Each structure stands twice: as structure tokens, then as C-alpha cells.
Amino acid sequence: MTFSKSRKAGLRLGMATAGMLLSLATAAAEQVHKLEIRDHRFEPAELRVPANQKIKLVIHNTDPSAEEFESYELKREKVIPPQSEGVVFVGPLAPGEYPFFGDFNQATAQGRLIAE
Q: Which residues on adjacent β-strands are paired with residue 87?
């Protein structure tokens, strides 16, 4: 079976549109959760997230110094400059608790994700 040039172009356009819609649906399904670093502490210190889903953590550092979000259990680390935001993707996570800490202020910057 042969297709005309316009039919082939229409098929390509349809496939590209389907791909874009799939990407948008995936992005819409992504869970976004926010953390704030204030006075060398994470707010909230305990963050509940849905289990078995990819999570986007948006971390806003309001402090005048940098902080490093770090978690051995999540296998993530990210330096967040002062007065700025950083993004960390994790998951999908099995149900459970996942501690994290601020590497530059370990005595005070402690928190945990609870996947349920």
C-alpha cells in the first residue's frame, strides 16, 4: 500500500501530536511537593508523599547561605544556593520513610519523606 505525500505528512503530524499529549499527561501526573530551607531547617520537616509515584521536590532556600539537600536512602544530593530554588526528582518510592538532611547544617537541617 502506498500513501500520498499529504497522507504521510498527516500521519507524521498525528504521531507527533500523540507524542506531545503523552508527554503532557506524564508531566501532569507528576507529583510536585515543596520544601523550604529557613534558619538552617527544612519546612516542613516531615513531608508525606504518595507511594509508587515519581516526585518532584522544589526546594526553596531562604537562608543567606547555601545548603546541600542530601539523602543516602533517596540517593540524591543537590546544593541549593542562597535565596534560590533547586529541583530534585525521586521515586517512584515504595511505602516507607526516607530521611534527608542539609549537609552544611546537619545538626538542625533534618527531615524525612514518608511515602504512603
A: 58
